[in-house]
Amino acid sequence: MSSSRIPSLDGIRALSILLVLASHFGLSLHYPHYLWAVANCYGKVGLRIFYVLSGFLITGLLLRERRRTGTISLRNFYMRRAYRILPAAYLYMIIITIMCHADFRTRDVAFAFTYLSAYSTYIPHNLSHLWSLSVEEQFYLLWPAVMAVAALRERWVAVGVALVAPVVRLVLITAGWNNGPLFPMATSVDALAVGCLLALTQDILEKWRARFTHSCFWLVWVLTALLPLVELAGHGRIYQTVVLPLLHVGIALCIQNAILMRYRVLNASAPVWIGNISYSLYLWHRPFDEPSGHSWYATFPANLILMFGAAVSSYYFVEQPMLKLRDRWLPKVFRSDVNHPVEIGAASVLPET
Question: Nearest-CA neighbor of 193 among 344, 335, 58, 312?
Fold first, then answer.
């Protein structure tokens, strides 16, 4: 593993995407359905892990730039995000729109291409996963501006978001909007905020390093893993207002532990590779997981093989070339931020998602 990569985080990305895939592929023909009930519950956890990671990594990137240059360049940040996120996503959207144009309305395509799917009341199956990307893109748009303007208060902004989001969820549930267009953002924004706080409080967490490397820390992993089961018990309001905040904190604590402990299973070549291609896997899995169709390409395990083929092609022929182009054209001082490791605790980190 390169010294400029954060230890264990590619492995955690692999865990995240595998949880999502296990859930979404659960209704495929010939899929081992006895796995699906629990997998469906934990698929949502996979997305929350991604959000906590995004908050942590992007905040770490912005903090490092501010330490090195004394400021945050929003223009350069948005340029780097555009190179990283948009080419692979728009290629998927264009191909799937051409192939499924008869099933899409104009508004469906418009919501997808403008990253507003989180606010749509209906999204066709092959575009349905883009709601989570729209939430993340809005985070990429707003959070750097908060850090650039409120340099000394971003911790309080993140704390405020983490505290207010569960209240907003309770209001939306009470009003019957739990399937409405505002709910995805309210569901996810505190996971992002907790990830931001994880990066913003590294100076404090370093004082507790011994606790994060203690031999009994596995209990935190177990308790965090058990929290999603509360949703299966049908306690919706308790889950959304109490359990989810605890889950986000538990995920953040486990991430900190994984960085310091560098577990072999999270840093092995296979999990690291899956973590690297996780974005393309997420983009390309929907066409192959038709819940009610019996098409050969949506039948397990053929759909799994085809999805990996599409994702690998996207990663090596779209994502990687665009990242090389980005590193060639972005200003040199900013490019060095991407490749130069810094110390957070004892971990050499590269804040990239």
Answer: 58
Residue 29 DSSP code = B
3-state secondary structure of 123: coil
Whole-number pLDDT of residue 291? 67
Consecutive 10-residue averages of pLDDT for the chain (353 residues): 73 95 80 65 91 96 91 92 96 96 92 93 91 93 90 87 94 82 84 97 94 96 93 81 96 97 96 97 92 74 93 97 88 42 33 44
Q: Is 344 helix (H, G, I), strand (E, B) or coil?
A: strand
What value does the CA radius of gyration of the chain take, rounded to a whole number of Å? Answer: 20
CA proximity to 55, closest of 256, 348, 344, 351: 351
Cα distance between residue 48 and residue 16, in whole Å: 8
CB 36 within 8 A of CB 26: yes
The three state secondary structure string of 273-314 is HHHHCHHHHHHHCHHHCCCCCCCHHHECCHHHHHHHHHHHHH
Among 98, 99, 117, which Cα is nearest to 107's?
A: 117
Angstrom CA distances, 264 to 5, 56, 57, 219, stand at 15, 22, 21, 18
Q: What is the pTM of this model?
A: 0.90
